[in-house]
Amino acid sequence: MGITRIKLPIVGRVTEPPAPPAAPALDEPPPARVAGGRGPRSVAGRATLAGTIVSVLLILAIVFGSRMLQDFDSALLPYAVATVFLAFGVAYRYTVWISAPGARRLFKQGWRSLFSADNFRRAPTALPKMIATYLGFQKFLGARSHARWAAHQLIFWGCILAALITFPLTWGWFTFTASSSTGPGYEMRIWGLKVLGFDSLNIVGWLMFHGLDIAAVLVIPGASYFLWRRMKDRGAMTGQRFAYDLVPLIALIVVSVTGLLLTFSSIFLHGGGYEFLAVLHMVSVVFTLIYIPFGKFFHIVQRPAAVGMQLFKYTARTDEQVFHCKRCGQLIDTAPYVENLQGTMRDLKLDFDTWTEYCPRCKRVLRGTAYLSDVKKGFK
Questions:
Q1: What's the CA gap between 91 and 47, in Å, rounded?
Q2: For every one of its 380 residues, what pLDDT tens digit does the chain have, with 9 covering 90 and above?
Q3: Which letter does DSSP use for residue 2 in this model?
Q4: Are strands 193-199 and 322-324 parallel, antiparallel or unpaired?
Q5: Strands, DSSP E only, in the chain?
Q6: Which of 104, 119, 173, 360 has the fewest CB atoms within 10 Å, counting from its CB?
Q7: Is residue 177 exposed (0-12), middle (13-18) or buried (19+ Cβ within 10 Å)?
C-alpha cells in the first residue's frame, strides 16, 4: 500500500526483486572500512582503543596515587583489578553508544550547551539546578511514583557513598593509620598527606569505620522494593529480562548483605566465619563491578550526558524557541530539539522526518485517515 499523501513509509507494495549487489573488485577496501570509518569494525576498534587508554590511565593513577604502591593493600588486589575491567567496559560501551547517529548528535549538542558561554550568561543557575534536581534528587521520577522515587534515592545515595569509600581505598589513595600505638586515635591520609585526625571511639570514628554499613542499609530496602515490584507489577514483568533487570538488583542485595554480615561476624561472632564471608563478599563485588557496563547499571554513566541535553532544551525554552504541531498547534518541544531529531532521522536515512512536525495525537489521526482513504477503499 503506497501512502504518499503524508509521506508514510511504503509497505507491502509488490515490486520487482532488487538486483544483487555487484561483487567488489579485488583492489577495493573491505566494506567495514569505507563510509568515513563508520563500519562495525571501525566502531569496535575505536571502542577497544578508548577502553585500553582509560584502563592504562587508571593503572597509572593507582600506581602514582598510592605512592608507587607504597600505600596499596595487596589484600584488595581483586577489587582493584575489577575496577580496571570496569573502566575498560565503561569506556568501550560509551564509545559504542555515542557512535550511533542519534546518540552522537545528542551527545554533541549536550556538551556544546554545557560549555556554552552564552548559556551561562543567560541562565547562570540553570546548570547547578539541573545537576541537583536531575542527577542528585531525580525529581522526574517523583512524577511517576513517590515510592519509586524514594527507592531510587536510597539506591543512588547508597551506591554513591559506597563508591566514594571503596574506590579510593582500593586504589591506595586513602589510608587510615593509628596515630599512636596505645591510643584510639587514627589519621586519614590522602596520597600520603594527613587530612583528618579522629578518635575511633567517638561518633566521627564510628561513621568512618561504618560508612559502608550505612551504604548497605540504604541500598537493601531500595533494591528490595524494585525487586518486589518486578515480581508483582504486571507492567514491569511484561518487558523485563532476567540478566538485564533482575541480576543487578540481586547483585546489589548480595553485596550489601554480605558486607553487613562481615560487620556482624567481627562484632558478635568474634570473627567466626569471617574468611568465608570475606571471599563471598569479594566475589559479589567483583562480579557487580565487571557487570556494570553490560547491564542496566550503565545508565548511571549515561545520565550525566543527559544533563547537557536538558540544558539544551531549557535554554531554547528561555529564548522562546518552541515548536508547535502543524495540524493542531499544540506545543511539541523546542525548535532546536525538533531540528536535532530531524537531522538524526536524515542521518539514519529515514524518509519520514516530517512526522516530527506533528504531535502524537495528530500522527494517529493522520495515519487513521490515510488508512481509510488510501487502503480501506481498496477492499470490497
A1: 7
A2: 443 343 434 333 333 444 444 434 434 444 444 344 445 568 889 999 999 999 999 999 999 999 999 999 888 999 999 999 999 999 999 999 888 877 787 777 777 777 777 777 777 777 788 888 888 888 878 777 888 899 999 999 999 999 999 999 999 998 888 776 666 778 888 888 888 888 877 888 888 889 999 999 999 999 999 999 888 877 667 777 887 888 889 999 999 999 999 999 998 988 889 999 999 999 999 999 998 888 788 888 888 777 777 777 776 666 667 888 888 888 877 777 787 777 877 777 777 777 888 888 888 888 888 788 777 665 54
A3: -
A4: unpaired
A5: 174-178, 185-190, 193-199, 322-324, 331-334
A6: 360
A7: exposed
With 0-12 / 13-18 / 19 or more C-beta atoms within 10 angstroms meaning exposed / middle / buried, residue 60 is exposed
- Cβ atoms within 10 Å, residue 176: 15
3-state secondary structure of 15: coil
Cell 508514510, residue? 8
pTM: 0.74
